[in-house]
């Protein structure tokens, strides 16, 4: 195989030189956020189970939940929830045969990204100040 003349054919693009389209990035993020929400759910379930187990278990779980690590996990899970929700709405439109053009896919991808960030910030503001 090594002695086959390749001529001037271009090599396959590698990740260092190939930029994924934004619609591909949001598709990958949709799958990743579906799995990422599990971290927040597990943290909340641990907290609830600890609440009915013992005071010491609850204090430990509550300390982790209220720590900077718990805050990051919960905010990340909240963002993942909003992102996954908005991407799911887009998929309903895709399944109906709407917004399948490339430019529409790019616009909805950016709408999902910015929409999930804005909805996360609004949710946090309502939680802390509402």
What does this structure look like?
The structure is a single chain. By secondary structure, the protein is mostly helical. It has one domain: 3 helical TM bundles of succinate and fumarate reductases (Up-down Bundle), CATH 1.20.1300.10. 77% of the residues lie in helices and 0% in strands. The longest helix is centred in the N-terminal third of the chain and has 32 residues, at 22-53. The protein is elongated. The model has no long low-confidence stretch (mean pLDDT 91).
Task: Summarize this entry quickly.
With 130 residues, the chain is mainly α. Helices cover 77% and strands 0% of the residues. It contains 4 helices and no strands.
Observed structural traits:
130 residues; mainly alpha; 3 helical TM bundles of succinate and fumarate reductases; 4 helices; 0% strand; elongated
